[in-house]
Fold this protein.
Amino acid sequence: MNARVIALLAALVALPLSAQERGFAGLGSDVAGFALPDRPRGLTFPADHGPHDDFRIEWWYLTANLRGADGRDYGVQWTLFRSALAPDGLFQGWAAPQVWMAHAAATSENGHHFAERFGRGGIGQAGVTAQPFAAWIDDWQMVATGPDGSPDRLRITARGADFGYDLAATAGGPLVANGENGFSIKGPQGQASHYYSQPFYDIAGVLTLSGAQVQVSGQAWLDREWSSQPLDRSQQGWDWMALHLDDGRKLMAAQVRGAQPFRFGSLIAADGSVQPLTHDDVELTPARGSPPTSWRVRVPSGSIDVTIGAVNPDSAMATSVPYWEGPVRIEGSSGGRGYLEMTGYPAR
Amino acid sequence: MNARLQRWRLVLGALMSHWRRRPLQLAMLLAGLMLATTLWSGVQAVNAEARASYAIAADRLGTGALPRIEPAGGARLTTADFVALRRAGWMVSPLVEGRLRAGAARVSVLGIDPVTRIGLAPGGPAGPGTEGDLGAFITPPGLGYAAPDTAATLAGADLGGLRIVIDEDAPANTLIVDVGIAQALLGMGDRLTALAASAGQPDGVPPLERVVPGLIRTDPQGGAADPAALTDSFHLNLTAFALLSFIVGLFITQSAVGLAFEQRRGVLRTLRALGATRGEALGLMAAELAVAALVAGAAGIVLGWAMAAALMPGVAATLSGLYGADVAGSLQFRPGWVLSGIGMALAGTALAGARGLAQTARMPLLAAGMAAPWAQATRRGLRLQAAGAVALVLALPLCLAWGGLVGGFAALACGLLAAALLLPVVLDAVLRLASRGARGVLTGWFVADTRQQLGGLSLALMALMLALAANIGVGTMVGSFRGTFTGWLDQRLSAELYVTARSEDEGRRIREWLGPRSDAILPIWNAEATLEGQPGRIYGVADDPTYRENWPLLAGAPGLWDSLAAGRAVLVNEQLSRRASLRIGDRIDLPGGAMPIAGVYSDYGNPSPQVMMGLDEFSRRFPDAPRLYQAVRVAPDRAGSLAAELADAFDLPAGAIVDQAQARRVSLQIFDRTFAVTAALNVLTLAVAGVALLTGLLTLASIRLPQLAPVWAAGIPRARLARLDLLRTLLLAAATGAYAVPVGLGLAWMLLAVVNVEAFGWRLPMQVSVPLLARLALAALLTALAAGALPALRLARITPGRLLRVFADER
């Protein structure tokens, strides 16, 4: 019975199980009644830090590459997903058709810890406010700590059965609009999302793994994205990476896999100026393995030719919807660190 | 090889011809087995169905698997409290529970939050099962999941547009909806009933008390909350009855098998003389029995199924009435049940046939097929039986010392079995005494012949005795219970009207309206609380002569009503007093501080602990308890019209006002339905015993000809012989009946003083009913008459030729 409910919730809460049949993330399904991404809309802050209930799905996605006082590499993930079960905004309290799901993870070279939470919108158990910025589910939270209430200064906390973290992040650069002024195309048929990032966080704090505390510091990347149907039905999943290059530049590169892979990305200069990357600007070549935890990434227009490899290849998120998410090290034309996410691969 | 098969076929043919010539005997054998299997498997089916219902309920409601967090007595738990706990890191999921009146029926409503529920492994929640339903489930008007029966009950009820979805797995009589939908259906505002909690909470979550004060956490298997634990006694009761009936059924089989072996001695001797080995004869006879067991077992299972289906609605009503456990009134097919039924039939046949087979194995090849050896063997057995009975009597105090319900039943079993084993010993001793005092040749022969027959009839008489004793015992128990219960209802239901409001505001307005129109309004407010570790209820009652004059007190300190009204003491019910060994003057822990106990009252029909306190003290301790229920005193002849006016004035639904007579009637109905099942089993047991007696007499009739022929030859006519035989049967039945009376009363005492106290926590005074005893004595004689008529008739009509042939055969 449990499995049935999990399957059901998974299907409805953003990310379904049967990737092959339905396209990963249930994103290939109906959009009746929901708002669709709009090219000329642009981005408005602080409103866009908050939820967009008229869109079907949305997420606040923070990944951090950390180095411990012990000299080891760590990675941390904090993700909150919103899924609207119905476009109707009339219902309040328990009746509000918003369902929230969150994932938290902490990865070391030889360990990968994760936890999952679910919650209902409308009663205060989970939600996001734009100003002052706060995103929370249960006792996990990502909240603004600066006097302006913006996401420029954040405190991020989460805990699971055998791990926890309490981190403070400060943005060292501007917000970055991906795609065309935040309108990011995800497929050859023009499926799209609104998508912006804050890739310039410096982050530090305490990580607790299996009862042992370690002081950590490093870089973090926040992704904000909302849409109602970003994937084509034939598209099965995606490979996505957010890389902090040692030369100060940031690279977001991704491909949606399907009959025809569809690639896109952003090459962000140290000052925050962004060069949108289209399908032909990016080359992504997986090494062996499923999912492949090592890739060759080339962006010839930016003179980037690097190999990324997982800090811990065993970074599978065995959550209600399984995927792979973990920190990577970068070698090649530039060194650096980053995060890799791969969805829609057959379970091992 | 072929030759051996050929021989087997011949031997089998010779053995089987016996049944062809005596179809009645075959019918007896099959009937005995079938009846035994029917009663056993029928009761097992009932038990299995009820247990499955509890398991589903426990599984689906999470009561079995997950700890619960509840507000302490009368406090409120709200959605905001749930959110506060979640935000503090507690892995909890909200529950809303209540009863909903839908037309004439009441269903349990269970509100869940499927979203937080899946985070609480293990144990699956109920709820939406297909994709796309979650949205419809949580947004008004919502989806409700219900078993087919429940859905049918709800058809046409006004549930605010709620769409009912049939779910075969849903617990009986329960409607599963989203938390928010449940709050709306039950008019609970933002209140929750409880929280289901994950068994392990994350490290470092703050203590419950610091996040939301006044909550109590109970772990699963928390004693009485589990319907399975509560109703165990009921099922044990049924099982004991089924076992008793099974044993009685086996007596029939035993007689039929014994007779068949006896009558086939000649055939066997001939077969053995012709070269059939002992092993072959035994093996084929065992195979024959096995086939009979399978056939009769299968028929018994079909009949058992029919019996269970007929009993099930009554059982469901009983369980709901006595324990508040929701059980489906229909049966589901369970393969394990069929297997256990067949297994019992086979095991029973083996037990019943063992003696016959053993005797056949020991039978000397050339011994004549006469009855005497059997009777003598039994006489030797009497001494053994007496020894067995003594051993069982000695075991009885051990069982009692072991304690608990199982110990009580074991003691019952020991006592009954010892009494049954002793019956032939006692009858034999009585007959021996009678033979000394016998005057006249015919009387002397009659007594001696009766004694001779005792061996063959003893099993049937034991069956009759057990059936009678069970009837007396259970009849007395139920009678005592009913008598006490009726008296108690009169005391307890002393007010003329009982009114339940739908909201606190309505309750207040009803009290205002009733004020000038009635003699007194007695608010009865209550709150759930954990009492001595078990979930129970605390009642607040007004200080009124109604209570002072009528309340069914078992014990009380002087001036107890004054100290109750002043908030200085409380009353507890008998269950609580017995379970926690609380006496008057002891202090009991209660929410808001311990209080001394001033009295103990009887409280039948409710297995949970209860405490009564003065209304002021109650309001002080439980300010948030809902104030919905009140009793109304009014002149009895005005009660009807006042109820009608009240219903009109507030547009109250049917059932919101209950008058005294109605409450009494419903309570007694529930009571009678509760014991309808036992009554049915009683009648069946007696019928089975009658069949056993008939089989035994038929067995004897055919063996006894050699003993009757000389008496007939000495000049006693056949009709007189037949009358004497019938008289003998009646005398034996009467003696057995007389013997059964003390046994049955002993059984009743055990049921009232041991089993009931263990099962329900109350002890009832025993009320011996003479009409019941007279009725059963008559039943015993009628049973004997019915069983003895056919053999007597046969004897009366036997041809002189057959009697003469006895002398010819002897030579």
